[in-house]
Amino acid sequence: MKRTLTLGGIAVGMLAAAAVATPAQADTDIAPPVNLANTNFAAKQVAAFWYGQSKANLVNATPYNVETTLPTKHVSTGGASADSKAGVVGSSGDKKASTGTSKNVNLPKTTGKVFFIGADKKPHWCSATAVQSQYKNLVATAGHCVYDTVSNKDTLDKWVFIPGYYQGKTPWGIYVGKTAYTHYDFDVYEDGDRDYAFVTVYNGVQVTDVKTDKVKNWVDNRNFETKAEAEKARKELELKSTGFAGKIVSRIDWAHKVPLRTRDSKKVEASVAQIAVDPKTIDSAKKTLAEQAEKYGTSTYQDKTWGVVVSRVSKREFGDGGWSSDGKAYYFAKDNAWYKATFWGNFDVDYRLKGKLVDIALKDVGTLGANVGGQGLAYNQKIGTNVFVFGYPSGSHPDGSYAFTGKTLKWSYGKTFKAAAPAMKAEELVGIKSSFTGQGSIGSSWLYRYSSTKRLGYLNGVTIAVSDTDGNKRIDTSVSPYFDGETLAVYKYAAKFASGKIV
Q1: Shortest CA distance to 131 belongs to which of 183, 89, 192?
Q2: Which of 160, 163, 420, 431 sits most deeply, having the most CB atoms within 10 A of its CB?
Q3: Do 269 and 233 reside in the same domain of the chain?
């Protein structure tokens, strides 16, 4: 959707939470950067999150299922169009345009998966690719695989790119995201016509050693009176170590009864011994509890630290009356009926940290581009151009059948056509006939003039949704934003910045 507002242009968001200084820019439409992994240690913690616990978070991550299968349509008039002369930015291995063919396809090394934590606080992934840049540190994917369009946070958390990922294997390392760049219209309006993002990443890292240990004794053996204190201690652990795998657990402090509605307290079923607290006072407690039950029935004691629940029972259950052997019930007769009294106490709740510290030793494996290369960029290309699409499709067709697992890299090939997806505010998309199912294929790279020999071409789109256009309950179309001069501007701005190492 092309805007006529003077606000247009490029927006920049960061995988982050704290503002950092930015160089002077002529284009005032570029938003100031904000960082998530804005220090080497923060980036190391992100890598540790994915490498820790035998890579459990990587292995258990699921395809990102946000805005995947949507109604789309062919567009015969209007729609996507060039805004200037067509052009390409060279790939890492070929500055001249090469020709592509659909036979004997060698898969690109640049393609992989981006992993992150979704709005549901669970690990997910999308497809993505490395693209050429001055510092060999740039990744391209769908905008909503970087920016959080569900909870409207700035960005998705713990964002990393893993080229060549396969079932927990990271052949060229993990590349932690540093900065994300997108178009202003997607950042502000979630305009589907601009649903793409370029992300700078730190140098890749591989694990050289993993050590786990129980939480330090000063924490493990310490009770925290409030949950806030326990959360503060957990945060301190997370700041001091590369990873903390664990949780805050609550425990009843049976030694301290407190009035109802006291903060950090809990009302629980209790025996006479637990309500008495002091073993020496059990006999007097039995007398007090019995009198409360017989005189007031279901009630709360005057200090509001305990109470009684009385129910009518049969003569058989009543038996001989009196206290049960476990001290949890008291039976009494009144007005020719039999009753059972049970008791509750309101006790203080303490908290502990339970889990493990994960100390992960990492080694630097170099820049992304040095390891896998980078695709070029094509923009303002003619509609009807042949492209390859590379990604990790997963999930089922609308009829319930499964064609892809999401475990291995797949490709499709065809001509682009004008398309639209009104459900995601997208009127100027391009489509391609493809059976790629939506989960997992989002972020797939569309490569123009792909050379199977060099495994390089020119990025000319990223999958943002898939569709069943003929209503036969089988996915038959993938759609992408049309890459034009404004896409080039976002790319060129992102490509200017270095990321550095994290170890």
Answers
A1: 89
A2: 160
A3: no
Q: Are residues 53 and 123 in the same domain?
A: yes
Considering the domain architecture, whether residues 265 and 234 belong to the same structural domain is answered as no
Structure token pair of residue 352: 């502990």
Q: Say if residue 268 is in the same domain as residue 235.
A: no
Task: Give yes or no: residues 170 and 242 share one domain.
Answer: no
Residues 442 and 147: their CA atoms lie apart, in Å, by: 13
Reported pTM: 0.72
Name the β-bridge partners of 19: 34
Residue 443 to residue 145: CA distance in whole angstroms: 7
User: Which of 349, 376, 399 is the last residue in one of the domains?
Assistant: 349
**For residue 196, what are the β-bridge partners?**
142
As a whole number of angstroms, the distance between CA 53 and CA 35 comes to 26
Greater model confidence, 79 or 482: 482
- pLDDT for 247 equals 79
What sign does the dihedral 460-462-468-474 (CA atoms) show?
Answer: positive
Q: Are residues 411 and 450 in the same domain?
A: yes
CA dist 237 and 357 (Å) reads 8
Q: Per-residue pLDDT tens for 30-79?
A: 444 546 476 777 788 888 888 877 788 899 999 998 766 555 555 444 55
What values do phi and psi take at 8, rounded to 5? -60, 180
Q: State the total domains in the chain.
A: 3
Q: CB–CB of 466/434 below 8 Å? A: yes
CATH number, residue 431: 2.40.10.120
For 298, the domain range is: 255-349
- Count of Cβ atoms closer than 10 Å to residue 436 Cβ: 29
Task: Quickly list H helices, 241-336.
Answer: 272-276, 282-296, 315-318
Q: Which helix (H) or strand (E) holds 482?
A: none
180 φ/ψ angles, rounded to the nearest 5 degrees: -115, 140
Q: How far is 165 from 448, CA to CA, in rounded Å?
A: 23
The 10 Å CB-count burial string (b at 16+, else e) for 393-409 is bbbebeeeeeebebeeb
Q: Which residues pair with 388 in a beta bridge?
A: 413, 447
Q: Does residue 94 share a domain with residue 60? A: yes
* Tens-digit pLDDT profile for residues 96-140: 544 444 457 899 999 999 999 988 889 999 999 999 999 999 999
Condensed to tens digits (0 to 9), the pLDDT of residues 282-306 reads 999 999 999 999 999 999 999 999 9
265 in the same domain as 247 = no
- Tell how strand 123-131 and strand 62-63 pair up: parallel
pLDDT > 70: what percent of the chain?
A: 81
Q: Looking at the domain assignment, is residue 3 inside a domain?
A: no
